[in-house]
């Protein structure tokens, strides 16, 4: 008999922590990780609502989000490696040049 | 609804929710990137636990295999390849600490207000989750599979194209500047 | 790869210049086992120095002894009696098989196959038993004396050697079964550590390393010594000069040695085992260079005598030392995992390299 | 407060079975792993014309206990500026993952810890994938350059072979139709045909992939590489090292049981439905009686008195197990009244099922060990090339072909054994494709024959 509010609060908490992570951290990898956190928060809400209405669509959509997160992480990390190989740094601040 | 299933559900939920939030906070605050990666893994496993509590087993196992077993392995690999000691010494936290606080406060206020007001609205009230024992529910993975391939076939194809593009992008990106 | 590395057959330090996984350049640092054998020779009489020779290539002690004794005999213009020469040939060939067995076991172990090592050591044990019966020692045998042999062949020598040779034929079949057609073994050895014939000759490599690159050069045929001219045997020759060819050449050599032993034990001529050589050897002043075909390659002795009891200078040309020069050329361009295979295929023994 | 205690009481009496089974597995597993190691060392010795551990206990039977005690009291070194938290966490993570995967397995129809969760096999595969973290973090925590390199290599190997294993499993699941372990075996029972026979290529791919996944035999490169010495395990000593060791062997058992459940028909008797072959039921007890007799014959030869006693105990154990196995079979024979026979049915099902499952798992493990002693080791880039260029395309194509065969089968409504008519051509086509891939591989290899082997890090 858990009111759905609990799940929404949990999602909100993770979302906020993710946003803080994205904003405050300088290390690009940790920023990517916080994005994963945000996506997870969204997933929790989706699954909670799909469970509330008994319709599986929410879980299927969560599945798509995970697939997308995988794609995004792969490309993101690829960019980081390429960047690290040229500029020997992983900090967001130093990624200021568009073309070097 | 027998008391014990109720109690069990709440206990499990609070347990996993606590772990998720705490390890999420630790992920963001840890100075050492590998520690934050480990805590992120615990956070993801906790959310997987919550999916289980919501009777979404297929999602639970996909989260473990794909998220933790796949994406996080990628993260840990990249962390290993990018030699840490350079990153650790540099200052980890940007100065926009106050900006972040401001944003999160605004967000919290907005959603908090919304949740609080739904409770107040007459009649409708806070929708309550019906906790049902496992056997009553249709087998989860079959249901997900049926809807995935029947009603959501187009998004499924688009997702596969998306993954293909991402794969090619990652390979090209990581290729040595030959 | 430091000196105490598990797979460098003794104390050899290899400095590898790596690009990621690939070897760009390499440098072998030797000298960890240098005992100054040649300097010691100048303060010992000819007979006293003989045991030192066994300590050089401790895996093939008998052939070291043979080389040294024959070099001195050449100096003294003395000929060992036929019986001694035949027994010397038998023991040297057995030592060659034992050395190749040790090489096969450790080489296969480096590349990962665990079982051949124990099969090879079981056979090698048989040979060492024969040595022990003959001259009391298994490894550093000091079996020969200048001018012939010290000990008469014990009565069941022919039977033991025959029994060993009979059993050995099927044993070689076992090793072949395990390794020769094995896809993974092929993958790990084919095309690894290629040494072309021209480079081999340029470096002065000898023995199986040279023959695997296609050069048909074997001192037992070119400059026959001991009793090799009496026996028929072929010289196996490889084609591409990679690790797999060296493996095939050495396996074939073991078979040939077995044939030589069989031919030799048929008729061991009767007669004295020691030429007439005085207690105190004072060879006339002069110099001699005598080379024999040790299991690893051409083992040469360059002895200068000044008429006194002690040699003026004994210079030893160890095959492993020379073959090791090919290492850098072979390792270049390969992966770190192949470096181990290349060290194994060169079959170097550090006692001989450092002297 | 009263509600809480009442709830926990109810919780316990509803879930006591999995709890007890779980406890049993965690307690008994180190012992089983110890004896698997002993068997491996004895087998290796036997193949290499030597005797293997003989000193501790008769024929070295007490060797695992000696090993365990040694590992417990050995000094536990932590490299100086290693990361304490991660250094402690890594082995725990890999053992935890391996043991958790054990929970999903269905050893007998009755004996299953996680009572038929409907994502059975997926759960086992997913959780054992967590073991990768144990390896990577272990390599990183002992911050020596070599162990990090070893850790990266072995995890790269694990990740690439997991895809191949996953695809092979998909193939098997096509026939089973469900993910749940018990119902997979039920499906094999109804179709009267082991899936390994229906999809032999998938079984072969899974066999190879599982060897690579547990870092064993020709693929045990990461820890046996000569210059990486012991790969990610170098810095761990004493108890920590034994945790990794336990994890490796548990993984082996897990992989073996997944293969038996899916491809070799879990706990089914070789010919479950052909009743005139029922005498096979007598095989297990006879086998154990034979072992018992052999032990009895060996007892007088034992030098020490205590060793003789031990051998007698072993013989006694074999006989009791033989009796336990024989009981349900005897009860089913006609001259016992049907009432008793029907009572024995589940009993027979459980015990004999358990025996056959363990028998198949040990046969699978024997094949693992047999490989380890005979063939040499792959170089790392060959290993990766085999994984990516050969195994993964082969398994994907195989899924395709088996799918087509299934459709053809259902179209011509072939059932059970007849399905072979459709699947055999599919497997043959798959093999032809495999040869084609190999030929292409050879051609591309010849082109680069000039340059040395491609460098995976390039």
What features would you describe in this structure?
The complex is a heterotetramer of chains A (100), B (178), C (355) and D (458). Chain A is mainly alpha-helical and 100 residues long. Chain A has a domain of 62 residues. Helices cover 78% and strands 0% of the residues of chain A. Chain A is built from three helices and no strands. Chain B folds into two domains: 135 residues, NADH-ubiquinone/plastoquinone oxidoreductase chain 6, subunit NuoJ (Four Helix Bundle (Hemerythrin (Met), subunit A), Up-down Bundle); 41 residues. Chain B is globular and about 60 Å long. By secondary structure, chain B is an all-alpha fold. Chain C has 355 residues and is α+β, with helices and mostly antiparallel strands. Chain C has a single domain, classed as Cytochrome-c3 Hydrogenase, chain B (Orthogonal Bundle), CATH 1.10.645.10. In chain C, helix 5 runs antiparallel to helix 6. The longest helix of chain C is centred in the first third of the chain and has 30 residues. Chain D has 458 residues and is mostly helical. Chain D folds into three domains: 73 residues, no CATH class; 264 residues, no CATH class; 99 residues, no CATH class. Chain D has 16 helices and no strands. In chain D, helix 3 packs antiparallel against helix 5 and helix 12 packs antiparallel against helix 13. The C terminus of chain D is likely disordered. At the A-B interface, helix 1, helix 2 and helix 3 of A face helix 1, helix 2, helix 3, helix 5 and helix 6 of B.
In short:
The complex is a heterotetramer of chains A (100), B (178), C (355) and D (458). Chain A is mostly helical and 100 residues long. In chain A, 78% of the residues lie in helices and 0% in strands.
Q: How many DSSP E strands of chain A?
A: 0
Total domains of chain B = 2
What radius of gyration of chain B results from the CA coordinates? 21 Å
Number of alpha- plus pi-helical segments of chain A: 3
- Content of β-strand of chain B: under 5%
The percent range for strand residues of chain A is under 5%
Distance between the termini of chain B: 66 Å
Biggest β-sheet strands, sense, barrel of chain B? none
Helical run tally of chain B:
7
Mean pLDDT of chain B: 78
Can you name the CATH architecture of the largest domain in chain B?
Up-down Bundle
Class by alpha and beta content of chain B? mainly alpha
Map the helices and strands.
The complex is a heterotetramer of chains A (100), B (178), C (355) and D (458).
Chain A: H1 4-24, H2 28-53, H3 57-87
Helix pairs in contact in A: 1-2, 2-3
Chain B: H1 3-29, H2 33-53, H3 57-81, H4 84-89, H5 97-120, H6 140-150, H7 153-174
Helix pairs in contact in B: 1-2, 2-3
Chain D: H1 2-47, H2 63-73, H3 84-103, H4 120-129, H5 131-141, H6 145-176, H7 181-191, H8 195-198, H9 200-213, H10 221-224, H11 238-263, H12 283-298, H13 305-332, H14 338-374, H15 380-411, H16 419-447
Helix pairs in contact in D: 1-2, 1-14, 2-11, 3-4, 3-5, 3-11, 5-6, 6-9, 6-15, 9-11, 9-15, 11-14, 12-13, 13-14, 15-16
């Amino acid at each position: 008999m858990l009111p759905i509010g609990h799940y929404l609060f949990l999602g909100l908490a993770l979302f906020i922590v993710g946003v803080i992570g994205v904003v405050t951290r300088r290390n690009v990898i940790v920023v990517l990780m916080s994005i994963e956190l945000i996506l997870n928060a969204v997933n929790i809400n989706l699954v909670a609502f799909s469970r509330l209405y008994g319709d599986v669509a929410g879980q299927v959509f969560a599945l798509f989000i995970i697939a997308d997160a995988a794609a995004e992480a792969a490309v993101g990390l690829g960019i980081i490696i390429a960047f690290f190989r040229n500029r020997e740094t992983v900090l967001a601040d130093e990624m200021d040049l568009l073309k070097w | 609804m027998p008391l014990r299933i109720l109690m069990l559900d709440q206990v499990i939920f609070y347990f996993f929710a606590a772990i998720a939030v705490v390890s999420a906070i630790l992920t963001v605050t840890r100075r050492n990137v590998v520690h934050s990666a480990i805590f992120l893994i615990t956070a993801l496993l906790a959310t997987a636990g919550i999916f289980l509590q919501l009777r979404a087993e297929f999602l639970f196992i996909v989260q473990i295999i794909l998220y933790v077993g796949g994406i996080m392995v990628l993260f840990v690999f990249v962390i290993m390849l990018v030699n840490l000691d350079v990153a650790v010494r540099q200052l980890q936290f940007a100065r926009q600490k106050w900006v972040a606080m401001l944003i999160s406060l605004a967000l919290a206020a907005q959603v908090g207000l919304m949740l609080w007001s739904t409770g107040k609205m007459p009649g409708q009230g806070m929708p309550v989750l019906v906790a049902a024992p496992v056997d009553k529910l249709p087998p989860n993975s079959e249901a997900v599979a049926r809807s995935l391939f029947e009603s959501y076939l187009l998004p499924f194809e688009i997702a596969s194209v998306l993954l293909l593009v991402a794969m090619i992008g990652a390979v090209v990106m990581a290729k040595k500047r030959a | 790869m430091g000196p105490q590395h598990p797979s460098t057959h003794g104390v050899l330090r290899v400095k590898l210049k790596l690009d990621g996984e690939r070897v760009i350049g390499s440098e072998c640092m030797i000298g960890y086992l240098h005992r100054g054998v040649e300097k010691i020779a100048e303060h010992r009489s000819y007979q006293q120095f003989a045991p030192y020779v066994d300590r050089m290539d401790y895996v093939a002690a008998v052939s070291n002894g043979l080389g040294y004794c024959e070099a001195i005999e050449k100096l003294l213009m003395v000929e060992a009696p036929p019986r001694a020469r035949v027994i010397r040939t038998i023991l040297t060939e057995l030592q060659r098989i034992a050395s190749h067995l040790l090489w096969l076991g450790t080489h296969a172990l480096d590349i990962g196959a665990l079982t051949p090592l124990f099969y090879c050591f079981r056979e090698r044990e048989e040979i060492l038993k024969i040595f022990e019966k003959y001259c009391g020692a298994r490894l550093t045998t000091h079996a020969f004396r200048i001018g012939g042999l010290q000990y008469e062949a014990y009565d069941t020598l022919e039977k033991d050697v025959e029994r060993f040779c009979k059993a050995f034929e099927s044993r070689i079949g076992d090793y072949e079964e395990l390794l020769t057609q094995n896809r993974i073994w092929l993958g790990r050895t084919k095309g690894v550590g290629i040494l072309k014939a021209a480079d081999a000759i340029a470096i002065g490599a000898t023995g199986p390393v040279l023959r695997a690159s296609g050069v048909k050069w074997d001192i037992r045929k070119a400059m026959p010594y001991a009793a090799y001219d009496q026996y028929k045997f072929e010289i196996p020759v490889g084609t591409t000069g990679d690790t797999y060819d060296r493996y095939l050449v050495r396996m074939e050599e073991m078979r040939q040695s077995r044939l030589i032993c069989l031919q030799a034990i048929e008729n061991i001529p009767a007669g004295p085992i020691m030429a007439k050589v005085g207690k105190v050897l004072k060879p006339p002043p002069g110099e001699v260079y005598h080379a024999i075909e040790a299991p690893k390659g051409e083992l040469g002795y360059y002895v200068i005598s000044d008429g006194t009891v002690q040699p003026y200078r004994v210079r030893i040309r160890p095959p492993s030392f020379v073959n090791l020069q090919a290492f850098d050329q072979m390792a270049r361009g390969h992966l770190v995992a192949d470096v181990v295979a290349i060290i194994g295929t060169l079959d170097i023994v550090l006692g001989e390299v450092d002297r | 407060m009263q509600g809480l205690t009442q709830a926990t009481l109810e919780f316990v009496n509803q879930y006591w079975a999995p709890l007890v089974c779980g406890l049993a597995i965690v307690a008994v597993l180190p012992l089983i792993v110890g004896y698997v190691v002993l068997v491996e060392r004895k087998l290796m010795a036997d193949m290499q014309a030597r005797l293997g551990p003989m000193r501790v206990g008769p024929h070295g039977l007490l060797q695992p206990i000696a090993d365990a005690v040694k590992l417990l009291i050995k000094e536990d070194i932590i490299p100086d500026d290693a990361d304490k938290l991660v250094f402690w966490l890594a082995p725990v993570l890999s053992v935890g993952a391996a043991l958790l995967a054990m929970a999903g397995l269905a050893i007998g129809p009755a004996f299953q810890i996680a009572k038929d969760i409907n994502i059975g096999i997926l759960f086992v595969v997913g959780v054992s994938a967590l073991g990768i973290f144990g390896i990577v973090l272990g390599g990183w925590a002992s911050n020596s350059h070599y162990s990090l390199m070893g850790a990266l290599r072995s995890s790269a190997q694990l990740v690439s072979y997991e895809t191949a294993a996953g695809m092979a499993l998909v193939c098997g699941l096509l026939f089973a139709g469900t993910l749940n372990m018990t119902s997979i075996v039920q499906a094999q029972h109804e179709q009267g045909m082991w899936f390994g026979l229906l999809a032999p290529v998938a079984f072969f791919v899974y066999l190879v992939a599982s060897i690579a996944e547990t870092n064993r035999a020709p693929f045990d490169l990461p820890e046996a590489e000569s210059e990486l010495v012991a790969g990610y395990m170098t810095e761990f000593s004493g108890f920590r090292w034994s945790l990794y060791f336990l994890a490796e062997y548990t993984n082996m058992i897990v992989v073996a049981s997944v293969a038996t459940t899916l491809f070799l028909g879990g706990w089914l008797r070789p010919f479950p439905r052909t009743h005139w072959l029922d005498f096979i039921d007598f095989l297990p007890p006879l086998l154990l009686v034979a072992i018992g007799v052999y032990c009895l014959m060996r007892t007088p030869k034992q030098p020490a008195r205590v060793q003789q006693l031990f051998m007698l105990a072993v013989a006694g154990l074999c006989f009791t197990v033989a009796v336990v196995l024989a009981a349900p079979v005897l009860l089913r024979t006609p001259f016992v009244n049907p009432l008793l026979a029907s009572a024995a049915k589940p009993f027979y099902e459980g015990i004999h099922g358990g025996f056959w499952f363990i028998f198949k798992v040990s046969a699978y493990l024997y094949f693992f060990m047999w490989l380890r002693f005979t063939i040499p080791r792959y170089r790392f880039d060959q290993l990766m090339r085999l994984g990516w260029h050969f195994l993964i395309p082969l398994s994907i194509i195989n899924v395709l072909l088996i799918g087509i065969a299934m459709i053809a089968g259902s179209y011509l409504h072939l059932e059970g054994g007849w399905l072979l008519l459709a699947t055999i051509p599919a497997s043959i086509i798959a093999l032809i494709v495999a040869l084609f891939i190999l030929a292409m591989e050879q051609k591309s290899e010849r082109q680069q024959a000039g340059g040395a082997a491609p460098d995976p890090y390039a």
